[in-house]
Specification:
Elements (H helix, E strand, L loop, with lengths): L4 H27 L5 E6 L4 E9 L4 E14 L2 H4 L8 E13 L6 E11 L2 E11 L5 H16 L5 H12 L1 E2 L4 E2 L3 E6 L5 H13 L1 H12 L6 H20 L2 H8 L4 H4 L20 H8 L10
Helix pairs in contact: 1-5, 3-4, 3-6
Length: 299
């Protein structure tokens, strides 16, 4: 049966907009203080987006949950780097990054997208967790929820996409992971209707995967030294997003809105020259864990 791509594009756009509303509503209730600012923007070459950013909240120091549906012509050099053919493209997706104020609450990222280029179309995305102080039960919970979502579609998905996440979110220049991973997929190879069903399922798993962690940790007392460590580790997050992240590059190369693309960057960051945490500390334990991938759920 021939897939009606235009119908699928509309369904994906409807899904990401509804998901954006659901996630933003849940985060505002959790924060209890601040609300998301919403900006609508248009891309000169075609399409646009709806960016939502929350700053200086009780829970979130900064968080962005944005959707975009863009289309038109790609630059020839960049078009050749994608999976499709030719320069004509359409891309719709949701992207979020949450930077909590409390260093005991992990930063989290998620992205779900549908891209059509020439004769090819595919889905991609995933979610990953970046703690500053490692609580193993949090990592296990995050991975378990995503594994359950994957298993509903194919038991082979979770181990495959967990490994892909570990490989993708790796800072090669530091030889360490950005965090404790999650899942990351790009074109499962299944029929598009099955891919879409999978994307809907894993994207709806985001809130059950993250909210219990945030609720459990958000009122944990912390020191100025722990806050300084959080800011140092946020530097690694910036390095990945600006050096290695393909989503950042895609947004900039397709002439998306720069403010929306760079909303992922944390509000306060620090770098210290050749800094290493004291051996035996919780900070040193985190770095050691990030040196090699770990099986969090026994898969």
């Amino acid at each position: 049966m021939t897939v009606d791509l235009e119908t699928l594009k509309k369904q994906m756009a409807d899904h990401i907009h509804a998901l954006q509303d659901e996630i933003c509503g849940a985060l505002e209730r959790l924060d209890g203080k601040a609300r998301f600012r919403e900006d609508h923007w248009k891309r000169p070459g075609g399409g646009g987006g709806r960016s939502r950013v929350l700053e200086e909240g009780a829970f979130l120091e900064k968080g962005g949950v944005s959707t975009s549906v863009v289309f038109g012509e790609l630059e020839e050099a960049f078009a050749g780097k994608l999976q499709g053919e030719g320069r004509t493209f359409w891309a719709g997706g949701l992207s979020l990054v949450l930077h909590p104020r409390n260093p005991h609450v992990p930063t989290v990222h998620a992205n779900y997208r549908f891209i059509h280029q020439g004769s090819k179309a595919w889905f991609g995305g995933g979610a990953d967790l970046t703690p500053y102080y490692l609580q193993e039960e949090d990592a296990v919970h995050f991975h378990r929820v995503h594994k359950e979502a994957c298993d509903r579609h194919d038991p082979a998905y979770y181990p495959r996409y967990k490994k892909a996440c570990d490989q993708y979110f790796h800072l090669r220049h530091r030889d360490e992971a950005r965090g404790v991973g999650g899942i990351f997929f790009e074109n499962t190879g299944e029929a598009l209707e099955r891919e879409f069903a999978f994307v809907k399922d894993v994207s709806r798993a985001f809130l059950p995967a993250y909210l219990p962690i945030a609720e459990r940790r958000k009122d944990t007392p912390y020191t100025e030294a722990q806050r300084a460590w959080q800011e140092l580790r946020r530097g690694r997050y910036v390095e990945f997003n600006l050096v290695w992240d393909r989503g950042t590059l895609f947004g900039l190369e397709t002439k998306g809105r720069t403010e929306s693309i760079l909303m992922s960057l944390p509000p306060v960051v620090r770098w210290r020259y050749d800094y290493h945490p004291e051996p035996g500390t919780e900070e040193a334990r985190l770095v050691e864990v990030l040196r090699r991938p770990r099986d969090w759920v026994g898969a």
